[in-house]
Amino acid sequence: xxxxxxxxxxxxxxxxxxxxxxxxxxxxxxxxxxxxxxxxxxxxxxxxxxxxxxxxxxxxxxxxxxxxxxxxxxxxxxxxxxxxxxxxxxxxxxxxxxxxxxxxxxxxxxxxxxxxxxxxxxxxxxxxxxxxxxxxxxxxxxxxxxxxxxxxxxxxxxxxxxxxxxxxxxxxxxxxxxxxxxxxxxxxxxxxxxxxxxxxxxxxxxxxxxxxxxxxxxxxxxxxxxxxxxxxxxxxxxxxxxxxxxxxxxxxxxxxxxxxxxxxxxxxxxxxxxxxxxxxxxxxxxxxxxxxxxxxxxxxxxxxxxxxxxxx
Length: 312
Ligand SMILES: [Zn+2]
Fold this sequence. Notes:
Layout: E1 4-5, H1 10-20, E2 32-36, E3 39-43, E4 48-55, H2 58-76, E5 79-83, H3 102-110, E6 115-121, E7 124-130, E8 139-147, H4 156-161, H5 164-169, H6 174-186, H7 190-207, H8 219-234, H9 251-256, E9 260-266, E10 275-280, E11 286-294, E12 296-304
Antiparallel strand pairs: 1-4, 2-3, 3-4, 4-8, 5-6, 6-7, 7-8, 9-10, 10-11, 11-12
Helix pairs in contact: 1-2, 6-8, 7-8
Bound molecules: zinc ion.
Zinc ion (ZN) is lined by residues 238, 240, 280, 282-283, 285.
């Protein structure tokens, strides 16, 4: 493939990827070639490889691969990052200390990428590798499907502790915990939420005895809500399901964050402002949102029947 991007749209790529997990493995060092729904790929002892692009048009590659990333986030939810620069063992390494992550890392680096996004599908990992333009060479992108053990090492807790939000939530200090709580309540970003999933039990323990204060609404309640969001994200449930549980979700701000679209209004005789109808941009669920005021503004989200499905 020279200077081209696969004609397949993100939906088709993901449909092929889901079938790649059922491909056979070769004997020894052979490569197997295959075709699924018109897309061709090959399989080594390590991974099923679906080439997506080889192009010098960096902007086109970025927009194509980010569309695939968004769809994969919606479908497989938790996105991990694989840092291919960390694992550089090779044939010269003592087998006893060889880190198995060096094999996929070498494959990622061979595509001129330093790291890759990946998602878990049962016992397999789906890895999206987006290379950069090496001197004079087109940038390549590919999806790898391989058993998840190749990507996971003993360091999951260590990674979680490098997340600043995890560190804040474990700090035992009210002035660090509360801003972190609000950061969790505001975000749907998998890169932010993923490290928190593995740490949620530790966060519950570390915050159990901290005096979090709070005037009109207890800050403890906001913390509990943040933990519910983390657990919801970890279980792969859309985060819009958290709206009915908390009264501080301002639909204007949620729309500005790109989480929902305000698609209409409904008059409300009890309130100064009409109710808004909000549609989740990740899953399409619809909510009717009443806005009221009692010492501070509040919003009550109630799920309503979705519009007739016009979505693709
Ligand atoms: Zn949703």
